[in-house]
Design a protein that fits this description.
The chain has about 375 residues and is mostly helical. It has 13 helices and 4 strands. A two-stranded antiparallel sheet has the order 1-4. A two-stranded antiparallel ribbon has the order 2-3.
Amino acid sequence: MAVETQTAPRGLRRRRIRPYQVVQIVVAVSITAFLLYRLQYVLFVDDLYGLDTWTRFLISGLVIGAVYAVIAIGYTLVYGILFMINFAHGEVMMLGAFAAYFVFEALGAIPAGAETSFLNTYPIISIILAFIAGMSVSTGMGLLLERVAYRPLRGGPRLVALISAIGASLFLQNAAQLMFSPRRRAFANPDFLSRGAGFEVMISGRPVLITYTGTFVFVGSLLLLALLYFIIQRTRFGQAVRAIAEDQEAAALMGINVDRVIAQTFALSGAMAGAAGVMWGLHNGIVYHFIGFLPGLKAFTAAVLGGIGNIPGAMVGGLVLGVVEALGPAFLGLDFQLKDVIAFSILVLVLVFRPSGILGEVVAEEKV
């Protein structure tokens, strides 16, 4: 005698919760409860920081986050077209900063008056020359890395390309140390863009300084991000990049020179890194062989946070990471030296709870 079994409709079936999901829920609830506790403590109990101080933190976070966003765009461009992480990108930024440093040093040594130099007599021209030098050097290094370190390995396993990227990063760090020495050098800004100078706004009856360098870096970063978005979305080169990111073989069959477009993508990525290096030097005033390492890792975190391969996501991720890094130590009651721990903790949490990032990862079907 056959026994009839009835199955519940699909919408009424119970979904089995896996142990990993239970752990995720517990961790998420715990983190949320802790953040809510800290929020009420900071707002209603602790008077250590006033509104003016929180505003300073926010301004600092927006400035550094804008630079992270510019660097993160380089990771996103390369990942979107090759599905690989260029871990030497931070060192490309470092070389751009060094190029701008030497341009400023050279222009500062050229007399242009009784008691002044070319750097301060023609500051706009000097800054333009520094950006041209920094972006040109980083563009050339991006092309060299693509040709030497990545193109020969393009058809191999992804792990091989990753190892090559890490090796290129270490090589450039040590090469810069040998060429420029390990000492830290002061970045000589033009007088009108002096660090520490700026204009004040009153917050809660107290002055809050908005520096000229911070304003320049923030506005310049937004302009670069807007320009890059226009290039990718509105130009033939951008169409070719998006076509290759979707399907390399189909793009080649349609007449797109894949190798040339990939090399141009590395060049564009390098130019953005070079511009970020110049702005980093202008705002922070220090250049040495290791300055690209931590910003490069944090920019990678920003790219993952926003959605790796997603250009608007990299922009959003950079700004969010910068603000969280600036506000986080004070909000959590931690030492400000632990801001790097907060940044990389965000990377871990994003990978655990939302690997696709805030705006979602953009990956072609062929690459999944």
